[in-house]
Amino acid sequence: MTLDRAVFVFAGIVILAGLALAWLVSPWWMLLPAFAGLNMIQAAFTGFCPAAMVFKALGVKPGPAFP
Predict the structure, then answer these.
(1) What gap in Å lies between CA 14 and CA 30, rounded to an integer?
(2) How high is the pLDDT of residue 24?
(3) DSSP alpha helices (H): ranges in 1-67?
């Protein structure tokens, strides 16, 4: 798995977890997927992604989006 795919999988998990928690616990959990979406938008423009940095430190091989 490349770094790009790992970031996409992580973002998907965060979004789905936030939606499930909002449905089951409190609507305030909708802030979690909102944060994930905003982070993905800023990463598209700046190339800076904290999740990519963590996965890179864990030894995931780079991909085309996050070298």
Answers:
(1) 11
(2) 98
(3) 3-24, 31-46, 50-57
- The ranges assigned to domains in the chain are 3-57
Element (H, E) at 1: none
Query: How far is the C-alpha of 38 from the C-alpha of 55, rounded, in Å?
Result: 19
Distance CA(51)–CA(27), nearest Å, equals 25
Q: What percent of the chain has pLDDT over 90?
A: 90
Residue 56's contacts (CB-CB under 8 Å, 6 or more residues apart) are 3, 62, 66
CA 1 – CA 8 distance, rounded (Å): 11
User: What backbone torsions phi and psi does residue 61 show, to the nearest 5 degrees?
Assistant: -70, 140
Is residue 8 over pLDDT 90? yes
> Please, what's the b/e burial string for 11-34 (b: 16 or more CB within 10 A of its CB; e: otherwise)?
beebbeebeebbeeeeeebeebbe
